[in-house]
Specification:
GO terms for molecular function: GDP-dissociation inhibitor activity. This protein is of the alpha+beta class and about 525 residues long. The chain has helices at about 20-30, 50-65, 130-140, 180-185, 190-205, 225-230, 235-245, 255-270, 285-300, 430-450, 500-510, and strands at about 10-15, 35-40, 50, 70-80, 90, 120, 125, 145-155, 175, 280, 305, 310-315, 325-330, 335-345, 360-365, 385-390, 405-410, 420-430, 455-465, 480, 485. The protein has eleven helices and 21 strands. The strands form three sheets. Strands 4, 5, 7, 8, 9, 10, 15, 16, 17, 18 and 19 form an eleven-stranded mixed beta sheet that branches. Strands 1, 2, 11, 12, 13, 14, 20 and 21 form an eight-stranded mixed beta sheet that branches. Strands 3-6 form a two-stranded antiparallel ribbon.
C-alpha cells in the first residue's frame, strides 16, 4: 500500500463528520488532491451511527478518552423483562436476562442481532426546503440515498384525553395542526383560538416583501411575549407553536427572531415534495449514511479516506515552504505536507479553539412497539410516515423551569431497527444526570400510555457538547493561520440547519479561490454511465 507521505496533498481534512465529508466531495470534484482522516475507527465523528456492538465500543472509548470528542458520560442499559413483570428496572451493561420456565414459550420481546440496528448519535431530520437537499440533488448524491417521510408533531398534554376514541400514546398527546384544514378539524381547540391561530399563520406566511411583515424590533422579544402581545395567542396554543420552532429552550427563553423564521420554514416545507409532510429522514442512520456516500464519491473523484489515523500535531511553515506550507505529523508516525488543512475543533490538536457554547443530554432507546397511532396518514396521497416528533413542555413533567424534552420516534421503515420495534431519540438542553432523568421520565410517560406491549429493550445515554442556532453568535469558519481552518462545534439543533451548507461553501471558496465559479458549488455533471436515463 502506498504511503500517505508519498503524496503532497492540496487539502487535508481532519474528521469525517457531515460538514467535512461534503467539503471533501466538493474539493475532489474541483480537481484537488484531498486526504480525509479520522482519528476514530469509524466514519462520522459526531454524526456517526452504530450497531449495538459498535455502540458498546464507542461508549468504552468515550469514557476512556475524555476530552477527545464532544461526548461524555456515556452509558448503556439493558433490560430484563419477565413474563409477569413487563417493565423491569434497567441494568447497566448487563446483557443477561432471566430464562423462561422450562416447557413454556418465550414470548418476551427481544433485541435482534447487533447489525440489524443503525443508531445515530445526531439523528436530525431534513426539511424538504433544506439547502442540504438542494446540494444532494445538484451533486447527484441523492441517487445513492433513500429518504422516508417525517410525520406529525405532537405535544404532551400532561393529562389523559377525555375522547374515548383516543387510545395508546395519543391519549396523552395532542397533534399540532400543520395547515388550515388541520386547524378547523381539531376538536381540542376552541373556535376563538382557531381564529387567533389562523391570524398568526396568515401573518407569518406573508412574503418577505410584504409591508406588514415583522420589523427587526418586533422580533427582539421572547417568543411567548411576541405571540401574546401581537396576536393574543392563548396559553394552550403556546407550546404547540413553540414546538414548530424546535427550540430546545423554553418559549420564554427563545427569541422571536429565532422562532418565527423556523415556524415559517416548517409550514412552508409541508407539501413542497408531496402531500402531508414537510420533512424527511435519510434511511440507515440519517446523516451517517449521507456522509458515507459523500466519502465514497470523494474517493471516486480521486480523494483518499483513512480511518483510525489522526493528527498528532501540525505546523504552518508558510514562510519556509510556500508550495505545501503545512506539515502534519500523523498518529501513525508519518509526516505529510499539504497546502491547506481543515478540520473540526476536536480533530486539530494544538490549535486555539472557541469552546462549545452548550450541552444537551441525549438518549437512544430501542422499544418493542411500532407506535402506529403516532404515525397516521392525515392527507390524501401522503406517504406513510416513518418518523414523528414529540415535545414535552417542562411543566408537563413537573419541572416548570426546565426546557422542553423532544423525542423523535423512528419506525423500522427508517432502517434503524427491525420490524415491530422503534428507536426513540431523546434530547433536552440540560446536561448530565438532571437531563437524563427528564429524558427517562418522558420516555416512561410515552410507554405507559402506549400500553404494556411497549417496553425498552436497550438504551444509551450521553451528554453532547456543541452549539445552538439561537445562541446569538453566527457559526463561521475559524482561521488559525493562512493555511489552517476549522469548523465550529457541531449544531445541537434537531433539524439540519442551512448555515452548515453555507460554512462548507465558505471553506470551499477560500480553498479554490478564483479557480472555480462560486455559483457552481456542488453542481456536478453526470459521470459516464450514471445518468437517470
Amino acid at each position: 500500500m502506498e504511503s500517505l507521505a508519498d503524496t503532497t496533498w492540496d487539502v487535508i481534512i481532519a474528521g469525517t463528520g457531515l460538514s467535512q465529508s461534503l467539503l471533501a466531495l466538493a474539493l475532489s470534484r474541483s480537481g484537488k488532491k484531498v486526504l480525509q482522516l479520522d482519528q476514530n475507527p469509524h466514519y462520522g465523528g459526531p454524526d456517526a451511527a452504530f450497531s449495538l456492538d459498535e455502540a458498546q465500543e464507542w461508549v468504552t472509548g468515550v469514557n476512556q478518552h475524555p476530552g477527545r470528542s464532544p461526548f461524555e458520560d456515556a452509558k448503556i442499559f439493558t433490560y430484563q423483562h419477565l413474563p409477569d413483570s413487563p417493565r423491569s428496572p434497567p441494568s447497566q451493561n448487563d446483557s443477561e436476562g432471566s430464562e423462561p420456565l422450562a416447557g413454556t414459550p418465550d414470548i418476551r420481546p427481544k433485541l435482534a442481532a447487533s447489525r440489524t440496528y443503525t443508531l445515530s448519535l445526531s439523528p436530525y431530520f431534513l426539511y424538504t426546503r433544506s439547502a442540504l437537499i438542494s446540494i444532494l440533488i445538484s451533486s447527484k448524491v441523492y441517487r445513492q440515498l433513500e429518504f422516508v417521510a417525517l410525520g406529525s408533531w405532537w405535544i404532551h398534554t400532561g393529562t389523559q384525553a377525555a375522547d374515548a376514541n383516543e387510545s395508546g400514546a395519543t391519549s396523552i398527546f395532542h397533534r399540532v395542526p400543520g395547515n388550515r384544514e388541520d386547524v378547523f378539524a381539531d376538536t381540542h381547540i376552541s373556535m376563538k383560538s382557531k381564529r387567533t391561530l389562523m391570524r398568526f399563520l396568515r401573518h407569518i406566511s406573508k412574503s418577505p416583501d410584504d409591508a406588514e411583515r415583522d420589523s427587526a424590533e418586533e422580533l427582539l422579544v421572547p417568543f411567548s411575549e411576541y405571540l401574546s402581545s401581537k396576536f393574543s395567542v392563548p396559553g394552550d396554543l403556546l407550546h404547540a407553536l413553540h414546538s414548530l420552532s424546535l427550540s430546545q429552550r423554553s418559549a420564554q427563553d427563545t427569541p422571536a427572531e429565532y422562532a418565527v423564521p423556523r415556524v415559517q420554514r416548517h409550514l412552508s416545507s409541508i407539501g413542497s415534495m408531496g402531500p402531508g409532510f414537510g420533512g424527511v429522514v435519510s434511511k440507515y442512520g440519517g446523516a451517517s449514511e449521507i456522509l458515507q456516500v459523500a466519502c465514497r464519491a470523494c474517493a471516486v473523484g480521486g480523494g483518499a479516506v483513512a480511518l483510525a489515523i489522526g493528527i498528532e500535531y501540525l505546523e504552518d511553515e508558510g514562510s519556509v515552504n510556500e508550495e505545501h506550507p503545512v506539515q502534519v505529523q500523523l498518529t501513525t508516525g508519518e509526516s505529510v505536507r499539504s497546502k491547506v488543512v481543515v478540520g473540526s475543533v476536536w480533530d486539530l490538536p494544538g490549535q486555539e479553539q472557541s469552546p462549545p457554547s452548550a450541552q444537551v443530554a441525549r438518549s437512544i432507546s430501542i422499544v418493542s412497539s411500532n407506535f402506529a397511532s403516532l404515525l397516521p396518514i392525515t392527507t390524501e396521497g401522503q406517504p406513510l410516515p416513518a418518523s414523528t416528533i414529540l415535545m414535552f413542555p417542562g411543566d408537563t413533567l413537573s419541572h416548570p423551569q426546565s426546557p422542553p424534552v423532544y423525542l423523535q420516534i423512528n419506525s423500522s421503515d427508517t432502517g434503524d431497527c427491525p420490524r415491530q420495534q422503534s428507536v426513540i431519540y431523546g434530547s433536552v438542553a440540560l446536561p448530565g444526570p438532571e437531563g437524563h432523568t427528564l429524558l427517562e421520565c418522558a420516555v416512561d410517560r410515552l410507554l405507559r400510555a402506549e400500553g404494556p406491549q411497549a417496553m425498552i429493550l436497550w438504551s444509551m445515554r450521553y451528554t453532547q457538547s456543541g452549539r445552538f442556532g439561537n445562541d446569538g453568535s453566527p457559526a463561521t469558519i475559524h482561521k488559525h493561520s493562512d493555511h489552517v481552518y476549522s469548523f465550529p462545534p457541531s449544531s445541537l439543533d434537531l433539524s439540519w440547519e442551512d448555515e452548515v451548507v453555507d460554512m462548507v461553501k465558505e471553506a470551499w471558496t477560500k480553498i479554490v479561490g478564483d479557480e472555480e465559479d462560486h455559483d457552481d458549488f456542488m453542481i456536478f455533471e453526470d459521470r459516464e454511465g450514471t445518468s437517470d436515463d
